[in-house]
Amino acid sequence: MSTHSSRRSFLKYAAAGFSTIAASRVALAQATVEPSPHALANERAVTDPVNVEVNARAIPNFEPRDRTRTRFGSLNYRSGLVLTSPYRGFGGLSGIRLDAKGERFLAVSDQGGWFTGAIRYANGKMAGLDDVEAAPLLGAEGRPITEKRGWWDSESIARDGNLVYVGLERVNQILRYDFAKGGTRARGEVVPVPAGVRKLPSNKGLEALVVVPKGQALAGTLIAFSERGLDADGNLTAFLIGGPTPGQFSVRRIEKYDISDAVLLPSGELLILERKFSWFTGVNIRIRAIPLKSFMPGALVDGPALFVADLGQEIDNMEGIDAHVTPEGETVLTLISDDNFSMLQRTLLLQFTLAE
To answer: What SS3 state is found at 140?
Structure first.
């Protein structure tokens, strides 16, 4: 079996439950015995701040079967990178936030680690990463959160100036960091959350966070989305935390897609990155656009798909999305994948331009 085919076979299993990597590999007849998720967290956890070498290989075409194609739904493919590193803790990237120029980034690993650095561009296309550093997420006592049982699964990130919010999926907690107090060395404070957040499934819980800035509807609200916490009608549960109208609402679940991240555009459209698994089609991802003004307690929100992709394109386990606007006025979406620290998966960094 070729490496490419092996990777795709693994992704089909992985999409059914990314936390059950061991079972997936058994199904693929691999003889190795995988550690438990908690053991993996300890093994891959970032324990101290460290500079990290990251290598990048360009992805010239998003669809290898048709190298002339650049338009995919409402998005135009811009550039992409396959990222690798000799650093053992590099990977598992589950969320990313960029500066206004789309250069400096702050990413979070699902093993309780920060990754910071800069995207290097050449002729408008991503060419590599510079100045990459890893550091552990710290708790209120100044110790790595991975020292607490279950507190390592950092899956989501949102930023409001110097305030950075991180969602921990397995314990369904949210930590707030004030980067004015040491950047990635800042200590996290637990954010009070509604009772419904604590009742989310441990491995399908908090998966996406968005802070609504000043000037937008619901300004000051932290919006928290579950991966697959379902309401009584089978739709995806989400929460408005703080702000003018706190409460719980739902996102219509269509075709068994789950939420993996979200980003709010200056236009007031909130984009939700989704993924799903099918034994017939493998891994699929989708981006939906939902007006922020439709979010309110008790609401069931919905919106059209702007973008759909499958394993025929250059995707993997896409878990993070962010957006920035270029000086020319183009809205650029940046997506990142979680490789599950598997040799059969990849860390991909992809950029698309939102078509008019």
So the answer is: coil
Please report the DSSP string for 323-346 in residue order.
EEE-TTS-EEEEEEE--TT-TTS-
- Percentages helix, strand, coil for the chain, rounded to the nearest 5? 15, 45, 40
Residues 246 and 1: their CA atoms lie apart, in Å, by 52
Cβ-based burial of 343 (10 A; exposed 0-12, middle 13-18, buried ≥19): exposed
Give the Cα separation of 144 and 113 in Å (integer): 9
Check: CB of residue 202 under 8 Å from CB of residue 169: yes
Distance of alpha carbon 158 from alpha carbon 152, whole angstroms: 17
C-beta neighbour count of 65 within 10 angstroms: 8
Contact call for residues 108 and 94 (beta carbons, < 8 A): yes
Residue 267 in 3-state DSSP? Answer: coil
Tell me the pLDDT tens digit for each residue of 299-347.
999 999 999 999 999 999 999 999 999 999 999 999 999 999 999 899 9
- pTM for the complete prediction? 0.89
**How far, in whole angstroms, is CA 24 from its chain's centroid?**
22
